[in-house]
Amino acid sequence: MKERIALVTGSSRGLGRVLALSLSRVCSGVALHYRRDRASALRLMQEIKSKGKMASCFKADLTRKKGALELIERVEKKFGRIDILVNNFGPLLVKPWEELTSEEWDFILKANLMSSFHLIKASLPGMRKRKWGRIINLGYSRVEQLASFPTITPYAISKTGLLILTRTVAAGVASEGITVNMVSPGLLEGGILPQDSFIPCGRMGRFEDVAHAVLFLASEEAGYVTGVNLIVSGGWKL
Q: How far is CA 115 from CA 118, 204, 206, 221, 222, in A?
């Protein structure tokens, strides 16, 4: 892992920031993506560099195909490769489905599903050439439950679609040394707390809990694990 380069989307703050920091401890370099918060991305970059690792910031609008393709091109030009792709970017909109505008619906689908689709396709040629790659998509803990989600309808649809894409790509590239998996967090500290929030483990999840799962799936030890949806929820909604 010491020679690997990771790209983490949406990594200027929150969960993405912790994922990038965690990967920087085991990789030689991390590409940091941000959409608007350049200042936070730069602070994270300096923090990683202060520990002797490579880091660079890249601004991109991943709701646009051109933005996603250019991000992969720029990261590969800077670092020479992308070994680990973590698709963390994916905003959540909480709003009754009947009140959604077509623009809001379109934005959530592009941000959560189509961005990952374009990034995966663009990063695969390099991974195939090197016969090694790790693609990790971020879902949410109920992504496999085909139920009613009246206040997060497009988000739920896009993340379930992302799980199908995850397994489809995993099956197609398994023979080429590339694994494709999903990590699905439950309720996290600082996030939205639904009324029905009993968590058997007795606490909210931490960003580090999710990072541990991502690190495992990015590791050499997980080379035989692909197409998996690893739920990190403390037993919530089991």
A: 5, 28, 25, 28, 25
What are the extents of the domains in the chain? 5-232
Q: Look-up: residue for tokens 């809990």? A: 209
Task: Give the distance between the most distant pair of CA atoms in the chain.
Answer: 51
Give the strand order in the sheet containing 29-34: 54-59, 29-34, 5-8, 84-87, 133-138, 178-185, 229-232
End-to-end CA, the chain: 34
Cα separation, 218 vs 216, in Å, equals: 5
Tokens found for residue 50: 């202060």
Backbone angles phi, psi at 170, to 5 degrees: -55, -45
CATH topology of domain 5-232: Rossmann fold (3.40.50)
Task: Read off the pTM.
Answer: 0.96
Give per-residue pLDDT as tens, 17-47: 999 999 999 999 999 999 999 999 999 999 9
Residues designated as active site: 155
For residue 207, how far is the Cα from the chain centroid?
Answer: 13
Instruction: Tell me what pLDDT residue 237 has.
Output: 85
Residue 26: which H helix or E strand, with range?
none
